[in-house]
Amino acid sequence: MGRDIVVTTPKSQMATAALEAEQAQNLQLNGDERQYYFRNLGMHGGANLGKGSRVYYVEDGYLRGFGTVESDEDVLYRDWNECDTTGRQFGKGWYVYIPVDSWQWVVPVPYRGFQGWRYAPTEWRDLEVVGNWQDPKPMSEMVGE
């Protein structure tokens, strides 16, 4: 099993990310082929990821949840990739593909956003899961805000 990482969704991209997730979830629910989220990890991002790795997401100052890499083949170096929702093209680098139906929400944990990616602490594997890909995003109020 590879290492776990954490990434941040920039505030300027949160609406787009929500639209991408909604579109992928609807396709998955409609019985289309299996849907995937992807993340461009840059030129040095994929070497330690593999089957069973978790990709944790931070948005709005909170760790929100994670998706799990299904196979080693879902982490690869590519010359480009295109977002099906926005048509945005991404260049060379490491990409990780995460099955939509692997998503798990956790009780939101305050966490400051950052650029790029980082290795996730192993203790995050003990975070309380409070929903899956078909459930709404838990509110930050769960942590007493």
Comma- or semicolon-separated keywords:
145 residues, mainly beta, six-stranded mixed β-sheet, three-stranded antiparallel β-sheet, 37% strand
Walk me through the structure.
With 145 residues, the chain is mainly β. Helix content is 11%, strand content 37%. It is built from one helix and eleven strands. It has one helix at 14-29; strands spanning 5-8, 36-42, 54-59, 62-68, 75-78, 81-82, 89-90, 93-99, 104-110, 117-119, 129-132. The strands form three sheets. It has a six-stranded mixed beta sheet with strand order 10-1-3-4-9-11, with no helix packed on it. Strand 6 and strand 7 form a beta hairpin. The radius of gyration is 15 Å and the shape is globular. It starts with a strand and ends in a 13-residue tail after the last strand. The model has no long low-confidence stretch (mean pLDDT 88).
Q: Based on CA inertia axes, which overall geometry fits? A: globular
Low-confidence stretches: none
Radius of gyration: 15 Å
For the record, give the distance between the C-alpha atoms at the N and C termini, rounded to a whole number.
Answer: 36 Å
Spell the H/E element sequence.
EHEEEEEEEEEE
Overall residue-averaged pLDDT value: 88
